[in-house]
Amino acid sequence: MASSVGSLDDEEMDLIEAGGVDDEGEFSPSDYDDDSMTDSSSMGSSIYQHSFQNGRRYHKYRHGKYPIPNDEHEQNREDMLHAMMLEGTNGRRFFAPISSNPLKILDLGTGTGIWAIEMADMYPSADVLGTDLSPIQPSWIPANCRFIVDDVEDTWENGSDWDFIHLRNMLPILRDPLALLRNAFENLRPVCMPKSLIPV
Questions:
Q1: Contacts with 101 (C-beta within 8 Å, 6 or more apart), sequence order
Q2: Which domain of life, per UniProt (predicted)?
Q3: pLDDT tens, 155-177?
Q4: Residue 160 falls in which region: left (phi positive, over 0), alpha (psi -120 to 50) or beta
Q5: What is the dihedral of CA 22, 24, 28, 30, to 10 degrees?
Q6: Percent of all residues in the chain with a pLDDT value above 70, rounded to a whole number
């Protein structure tokens, strides 16, 4: 049976896991290349520092902007939410009508990077970029996927020719959600659209 757009086939679906303990350090910070980062993210080792409150770990960059922890428990929760969304959408990662060969995909607030990594696997010819305040993404990523530390509400420094812009579960914590959506539309190629998934 052929896969629908935005989904993996049944064999690949069996590989999706969420939860458990990260004994092997799979969710260690990515190997960021400080020389290639934008001004908004070129802070060297300081981006890897964290703040601790009430026994939970939080991002240090723009501390307090995102009120949710970034520790292992939260990463497991994010990955479980991703798995539940896939289950609820029959394995579809998006519903936007994008081309079968997108060139550039942007994942805003990528979190653990699981969505960006899966999109990079689905579209090996695409350049997939995930941005987040926390450098918590895994170091084992497809060659066409990369992550940067950045604030999505700042001026975008990563070009304006995106084929697909994805954000999920972020609108309630943004200062100005309409400004972010306007920025997304302005940074898309013509005839493209941003996609925000908001769980019901």
A1: 123, 125, 126
A2: Eukaryota
A3: 877 677 899 999 988 888 888 98
A4: alpha
A5: -130
A6: 64
pTM above 0.85, yes or no: no
Q: What's the chain look like in SS3?
A: CCCCCCECCHHHHCCCCCCCCCCCCCCCCCCCCHHHCCCCCCCHHHHHCEEEECCEEEECCCCCCCCCCCCHHHHHHHHHHHHHHHHHCCCECCCCCCCCCCCEEEEECCCCCHHHHHHHHHCCCCEEEEEECCCCCCCCCCCCEEEEECCCCCCCCCCCCEEEEEEECCHHHCCCHHHHHHHHHHCEEEEEEEEEECCC
Cα 8 from Cα 111, distance rounded (Å): 21
| pLDDT score for 99 | 84
Tell me the sheet residues that pair with 166.
107, 195
CA distance 16 to 35: 33
| pLDDT of amino acid 137 | 87
Q: Which fold has domain 74-195?
A: Rossmann fold (3.40.50)
